[in-house]
Specification:
The protein is an alpha/beta fold. The chain has helices at 40-48, 55-76, 80-95, 102-116, 121-160, 187-196, 212-224, 236-241, 267-276, 297-300, 309-312, 365-371, 373-378, and strands at 2-3, 6-7, 11-13, 20-23, 34-37, 167-171, 200-205, 228-231, 247-250, 254-256, 261-264, 281-284, 290-291, 313-317, 326-330, 343-346, 353-356, 359-361. It has two domains: 2-138, translation initiation factor eif-2b, domain 1 (Four Helix Bundle (Hemerythrin (Met), subunit A)); 148-378, 3-Layer(aba) Sandwich (Rossmann fold), CATH 3.40.50.10470. The protein contains 13 helices and 18 strands. The strands form five sheets. A seven-stranded mixed beta sheet has the order 8-7-6-9-12-17-18, with helices on both faces. It has a four-stranded mixed beta sheet with strand order 13-10-11-16, with helices on one face. Helix 2 runs antiparallel to helix 3. The two termini are 38 Å apart.
Length: 379
């Protein structure tokens, strides 16, 4: 993706220092800054404290964190058994940083499996570097294909409304290229439609409490030249009632093999509003986000509970100040308690279709397994 005319991914390896580089999403949209990660613990902090966020990006950073782990294990051990034991410990440390996101554990387990298949210690580090590259490249390509596969859905809706007026799309949180390695999941079909000449306009939920929509989605849509408007989270239902939303498209941090979708808190409410107003509700995801072990999303997916401070405090730039330094403010009484569940689960019955790198399918077990027959065979 282009940032001020320069191509970037969200995570990469510096060719000179061999450090892992990331875009520090905490600084956006006020400052574009990259950060170097040189240890497993730093990669864990970056994931837990949301220097990076979004399912695919978390997975890719975890994969690169395991490369850093492999280098640390090489420096501390002299035999395969000790290396593998320490390597697995470091993998579990990374997995503990964000419990809901499926891509995180998927990437760590892939690194453990691949590095465990070679015997020489130096070969394990080499393999970890190769796998980190593979996961990043796959994520970018899968998201590109999500755009390619989702474009016909948007084209059909555009033609049904006459092929003249802009296609109004509502999204929640950020499932753009910042949430992956490139292209994004929910935004990939939007970018594909925009680039093909379909006039699109995106309603961007602000996405409290961390405001990923207002801070990240709006910023990257602007970088790509896509028309958009930021709205408060609770405006979505009203806009749907007024006929100002043609479709909803979101990403997901974990989706069961039966089609239940865990995504940023508030997604379930958007799905209910879309269902009540007869508006298509699409979810875009790469296969790495599927949870092939979980059937009941509402009952079984762990929901991350984050710090109440994210609810009680808000940060931004003082419009009256001469500099662009961020300021944090308290929103309510200091004595008031707060809860901060980071995700909710949208039942499959409310999802119109899933858009994956392999194609589009209904949100049910049979349809999903028809796209991924190898998972049926492994059951």
């Amino acid at each position: 993706m282009q940032v001020h005319g320069k191509p970037y991914r969200t995570v990469w390896i510096d060719s000179e220092t061999d450090s892992v580089e990331i875009i520090d999403q905490r600084k956006l949209p006020f400052e574009f800054k990259t950060v170097s990660l040189s240890s497993t613990s730093e990669a864990g902090i970056a994931i837990r404290d949301m220097w990076v966020r979004g399912a695919g990006c978390i997975g890719a950073v975890a994969a690169h964190g395991m490369l850093l782990a492999a280098k640390e294990c090489l420096a501390k051990t002299t035999n395969t058994s000790d290396f593998d034991h320490l390597f697995r410990q470091k993998g579990e440390e990374l997995c503990s940083t964000r419990p809901t996101a499926m891509n995180l554990r998927w990437a760590v387990e892939r690194q453990l499996r691949e590095c465990g298949s070679v015997s020489l210690l130096e070969e394990k580090v080499t393999r970890a570097r190769e796998v980190a590259h593979e996961i990043a490249d796959e994520d970018a390509e899968w998201c590109r294909l999500i755009g390619e596969n989702g474009l016909p859905l948007l084209e059909e809706i555009f033609e049904k409304k006459g092929g003249q007026e802009p296609l109004h799309i509502l999204t929640h949180c950020n499932a753009g290229w910042l949430a992956f390695v490139d292209h994004g999941s929910a935004t990939s079909p939007i970018y594909a439609a925009h680039d093909s000449g379909i006039p699109v306009h995106v309603w961007v939920d602000e996405t409290r409490p961390r405001n990923q929509g207002a801070r990240l989605t709006a910023w990257e849509l602007g970088q790509h030249g896509v028309p958009h408007s930021v709205i408060v989270d609770n405006a979505g239902g009203h806009l749907m009632q007024q006929g100002l939303v043609d479709l909803v498209i979101t990403g997901t941090d974990r989706t069961t093999y039966t089609g239940d979708v865990a995504n940023k808190i508030g997604t379930y409410l958007k799905a209910l509003a879309a269902h009540d107003n007869g508006i298509p509700f699409f979810v875009a995801l790469p296969s790495s986000t599927f949870d092939w072990e979980t059937r009941d999303g509402v009952g079984e997916i762990p929901i991350e509970e984050r710090s109440p401070a994210e609810v009680t405090h808000l940060s931004g730039v003082d419009a009256q100040a001469s500099d662009s330094e961020e300021t944090e403010i308290r929103l309510g009484p200091e004595s008031s308690a707060a809860r901060n569940p980071a995700f909710d689960v949208t039942p499959s019955r409310l999802v119109s279709a899933l858009i994956t790198e392999r194609g589009v399918c209904e949100a049910n077990e049979e349809a999903i397994l028809s796209l991924f027959p190898e998972k049926r065979e492994a059951r």
